[in-house]
Design brief:
The structure is a homotetramer.
Chain A (H helix, E strand, L loop, with lengths): L4 E5 L17 H16 L5 H7 L2 E2 L2 E8 L9 E10 L3 E10 L2 E11 L1 E2 L4 E2 L4 H7 L7
Antiparallel strand pairs in A: 1-4, 2-7, 3-6, 4-5, 5-6, 7-8
Chain lengths: ~140, ~140, ~140, ~140
């Protein structure tokens, strides 16, 4: 069994607001960075940039939801666990659970659809991507 | 009846990714800017900064969810309609609907809790804020 | 004589760091937003996005420098005055002076070069742009 | 002789604009992240957040200048070399040189002043910080 994929983020002064915790408006982007890193890890270094430009595959988001459990601070690195929860014909659902010092800070669900990038048109998940994703799915 | 509150955002080149549309990671922050502007409009110019520092009231987010309906681009201004959907004893739920050229681009639900800011401790909605919010609620 | 061009920015809680002032890392982007707004104002609504995609003209930055004079806060709107200081054959130099409540907060110099956008190749300033910019130049 | 300090940044799709290169408005923040990481490395893990909150030392920026030499893309990690160039009584000057695949992408100069953080008042560089910085200075 594979170990979980965890993307580490260095939270800094510049991420924090006057309440001395990371500003809510930056947390969704951190979750997205973690999902992009998940793709890089599982597609031989290819993140959204290479998917789009080299493979002509887009994966735009159609939904995201986040629950904030505990503040994020620069006191610890932020460890974002990412896994695919569901692979539909034309969509993929990711889960992200972000922890600091083993405390769950936020968790969320993200749904993307597959597109032919240069046509911005929906398509089924390409076979090579399906083959990579399927064994990694952890159902809800 | 009051007209809806709409916050206008100028979407720019710098908000866009190589797909030539605003990057998903920036859209939640735009929705938050609109909610902050809603507070400014209804509390005599006080947004989160003044709420926290001058009134000692925090309103941290415990949940947000967004559905992306149509791409956001710099071709039009982004008009973010904001309204409170529910006011609980200790929480407030906002809805945001963001449109460009009358097309719905994204919509979302945001739940905040009221805190005593310098103690980061939950509190009931302060009476003066409750008085402002209640007449503006549009239930789901 | 034309009045100066001033772009207004709403500084918020989310722009501030724990020192309760706007984070330095966000100020250059605010200056760039002001320069983009200057283009929009003077090219009939066309900012960098339209320049690049509709006119095939890029204006990438080769230099920027900023001096920070006074902290930026959400207490006042930020008024960014923008003007072209110099137009060379293939480059343009902008000045930005950002003020809150009539206090100079930061000022800077920005040098861009003109490119054929889809070739990322340097070019002379297009004639129609030169005609717009020249009367607005305020030399150092 | 110590090896140079290099902070690695993962450049992503979300950092890029429609020209398919990192947006200029994000590069100064990347340089600042590298300077913050330099402090963390040399002060036992303390970056600006801990300097300010635990040591009551602020280091606000009074100047920054950047020259952009070559586009930044997600094709390679961005390696930001950071070193102090000068330590005055009350100020410190950093240099940052950012490279991808051994190509210089941008370089810059950053001047910070030392403050008593909770008074936002200028002070001389604290002795323990001076002792750490002085051996690392590489004059212009």
């Amino acid at each position: 069994m594979r170990p979980p994929f965890v993307h580490e983020i260095r939270v800094t002064w510049g991420d924090c607001d006057p309440a001395k915790i990371a500003y809510t408006g930056r947390l969704p982007a951190m979750a997205l960075d973690a999902i992009n890193a998940w793709w890089e890890e599982h597609l031989g270094g290819d993140g959204w940039f290479q998917l789009e430009l080299d493979r002509n595959v887009g994966t735009p988001f159609v939904h995201l939801s986040l629950d904030f459990r505990s503040p994020v601070t620069p006191r610890h690195r932020l460890h974002c666990e990412v896994w695919p929860q569901h692979l539909g014909d034309k969509s993929i659902t990711f889960r992200v659970a972000a922890r600091q010092d083993d405390v769950l800070c936020f968790e969320g669900t993200f749904v993307c659809v597959f597109t032919i990038a240069d046509q911005f048109k929906s398509q089924s998940a390409p076979a090579d991507i399906r083959a990579v994703v399927e064994p990694l799915i952890r159902p809800a």
